[in-house]
Amino acid sequence: MNLEVWAPSAKSVELVTPQRRVALRRLEPQSATADGYWRAEVEPALLADGYRYSLDGADPIPDPQSKWQPDGVHGSSYVVELPAITADFRAKPLAESVIYEMHIGTFTAQGTYAAAQAKLPHLVDLGVTHVELMPLATFPGTRGWGYDGVYLYAPFPPYGRPQELAAFVQACHGHGIAVLLDVVYNHLGPDGNYLARYGPYFTDRYKTGWGAAINYDGPNSDPVRRLIIDNALMWLRDYGFDGLRLDAVHAIFSFDAMHVLEELTTAVQDLGETLGRSFVIIAESDLNDPRLVQPRRWGGLGMDAHWADDFHHAVHAFFTGEQQGYYQDFQGLADLVTALRAGYVYQGRYSPHRKRRHGRPPARVAAHQLIVFAQNHDQIGNRAQGERLSMLLSVAELKAVAALTLLAPFVPLLFQGEEWGAKSPFLYFTDHNPELGRLVAEGRSKEFSSFKWQGEVPNPQQEETFTRSKLDWSELAQPPHADLYQWHRQLIALRRENRAGGKVTVTADAQAGWLKFVHGDVFCVFNFSAAALRWRPPRGRWHLVLASDRDQTSPDRLPPHATLIYRR
Amino acid sequence: MNLEVWAPSAKSVELVTPQRRVALRRLEPQSATADGYWRAEVEPALLADGYRYSLDGADPIPDPQSKWQPDGVHGSSYVVELPAITADFRAKPLAESVIYEMHIGTFTAQGTYAAAQAKLPHLVDLGVTHVELMPLATFPGTRGWGYDGVYLYAPFPPYGRPQELAAFVQACHGHGIAVLLDVVYNHLGPDGNYLARYGPYFTDRYKTGWGAAINYDGPNSDPVRRLIIDNALMWLRDYGFDGLRLDAVHAIFSFDAMHVLEELTTAVQDLGETLGRSFVIIAESDLNDPRLVQPRRWGGLGMDAHWADDFHHAVHAFFTGEQQGYYQDFQGLADLVTALRAGYVYQGRYSPHRKRRHGRPPARVAAHQLIVFAQNHDQIGNRAQGERLSMLLSVAELKAVAALTLLAPFVPLLFQGEEWGAKSPFLYFTDHNPELGRLVAEGRSKEFSSFKWQGEVPNPQQEETFTRSKLDWSELAQPPHADLYQWHRQLIALRRENRAGGKVTVTADAQAGWLKFVHGDVFCVFNFSAAALRWRPPRGRWHLVLASDRDQTSPDRLPPHATLIYRR
User: Fold this and answer.
1) Of the candidates A283, A312, B300, B522, which lies 20 to 30 Å from A85 by C-alpha distance?
2) Chain B environment of A350 (Cβ under 8 Å)
């Protein structure tokens, strides 16, 4: 088999295995491509016990494109054989999707692909169409969120073997569920990151908040792009994933005529056509920029959808009343109405938190191009105590939040356990080396130093911080969780049956505290106040199908904090 | 009159004049805008002898929006009264334009607006439609190219008073010539730059090669954008300019949903509609990115045109055979043909000089959206000896270059004196303070240290380096300059009469060394070789109108290095 590695500045590259060393041959530079690729043809058996590369005779280091790092970020690299993917699965289009964000390590007690696989009947019952896995690219230690990955091609060993990941994806497909993967292409983690020794993967021309920016547009950036784009293609082609969620694309700096994300979406689309499959690329972005999801012919980057944080912030600020940090930008019912109508609250107006005007109108952005949520790993986990909304709101309020999110015209995303109002927190946990771990813990403490009222910040490095974040599945059968679960399940079913075209009509009265919206065949009314309101039910063919508090509901009365849902 | 200044961190701001000090009042922050504006209403007479601002009681410094700095970059600021602009001038559309790049300081011996104004009949005779002035924003010292400006609103004093600049623009209009201004919005010069004391005008999130990047997208960037955009509007509205050439927009970092250049083009267009005038915005960009000139509805930035350096490089490398620096990316006749056909040579192929793929196809870019040139201030002045092509090529070759540039389907730009093959160099000259001057001179020497064969680098700080760069108008009447001048004049006339739609058909033979192209009613054939070639003239209604070497031209023969031009 051929081994290939890019090391443009090296004078020599050797493959180092327990058995022997093999010199790689530098490929002749071709006028049409970057220089600095090295190659060797070897017997697969030579790699069976792992391998590394030695550049210019230095200590051998892992392969930046390692497929498997069973001994962690500083261990040897391994090649991986995966079974062929059967291509007969068809994912639901985004317009009909409900996404479920899952962190393999905390979704089950065991924290493995296999254990997660055993829970798939639950997701089928709930009605979600897509699972979205938090990042798998190997990161340091035995637990973590995954945003400090350094081996983009090697799935995190504690979750299971690569073959088990492929089996998980296949099992999802068997249950009719598509699988998305969260990939981090804006930076790499600090520990176990040997890329800079190989070549100019990073640049100081731009800054990110998390680490060196990736060199997507400077000299020698073609092979850097290739590392990233080939990685995207690998997950889709070799593991069978149905799409990718690109973490924080606003920190991907590609200031050239062909943005790396446009190149990526084009490559993914080409792969889909080759394989007869259909992939989706979803951006996490805080830019409120329609260009991300505009087709290339309109000057866009051609991605399928992007996360719309404004919806979350408007919902969260309205229900919790919180005004710290970015929540200060969201005020009352008016912003919630805008979020429901347009997805973007900030369309160019001044943001006090950002201290500048922000966003632009979502012109020609379809509702199914915006992913909305009332909770996600970040919004829960970036709180000092990792509180879910279930710890901040009443059951009635949780039901209202769920109805707003799941019946809105956008594509809803639930965070694992949200469907039953899980009480386990989702804390920030890490397992860094002691030195880095201390810095992370200190940074975390400092970050929340002005929020002392939120209590002592759990140490991310303590194992308990991780174990406390695991879902407690025993809750599911208990009140009020069982009721909340049924509520979510019914809303998802209602959403599925709704013949909606993305159009929504919203009316609200901030004074009285109510809001109603019509979306296709669904009519929702919310009483946000603590007082009962008089109510004249909609006329015509509308009939009441769901009420958050059925016992107290009567035809002409909205109980406090009630949500009523009609269909026609 | 109202004085206003933005100083968000200041606790107090005082106006300081020779007569007295006046405290400014901090405006109430409004939810819709940035905080930190200060204002005072004063009698105009109070400002007659200049003014400065003192922030928090510190030494008074000039106004960042000073309209006039007669005593230089460290001197007091002055207000300016300009006569009203008459709006009856109509510039030629770009498709019918020939631009003439002018540096006021070297265009004439006197180096003033008034002296340049006296030369306008020459430009009328030549047939150019637009004058483009190199930057006027006040920069340090008494001479310079102008790219180190620090007072964006104050025209450089040695060229004349603001009223004389306005008179120059009006005189151009009187001669039927439009006037563009080169403005530098990617950085500010290092000396006399007090902006950082006022507010966060700069950022370290991005890097430019010339100085701190301007804060266009971070916290408190709205007032920074306002400084720049209001500046653009001022030149157009108050001085009567017909458009702007934006220097190096690839170093303008605006990584948000509303790029500052889109905001700028929108504001300029709105001003044009208000005033009943039509303005053009031309970008200098090395990105080969159509998005710059695509309309906003196609996801573009809405600028009218951009400089197409590839055309220059292809022409220069072909005629001079030079391969140093970026010329290594341009090889022979093939790239010249591509340049003529498409404007962009690099449409995504690998660039050895940049060490990455570069550019994208100029889809939906009209020919009149690309500004081309065989010479400009940079391409001449960034050579060690500031040599014009007239010092590198024969008269016959200069004629070929002129025909390629002026008859191509793009918008041609000439650099002052190019029309007669001026022999004066255009050197890099500065007049910095001694310390900065030493650094600049050393940097300049070092930059060319690997090009020793180009000879000793003139010291930019020496006055002689400036005076040597002034045009020698006495050349114009002498051979071969008079002949070259007539050649340019005739080509421009031919271009003007040509009913062309931007379409061009090019054929060439690298072996034999000829190229021909048809563009509208014009047919050009070039013999690039040192040998005469057999030639069958075009049939039909074509008739020969210009020949670079008429004496040696016969119907069936192309003399060495000849250019023949036919019309129908």
Assistant:
1) A283
2) 31-34, 222
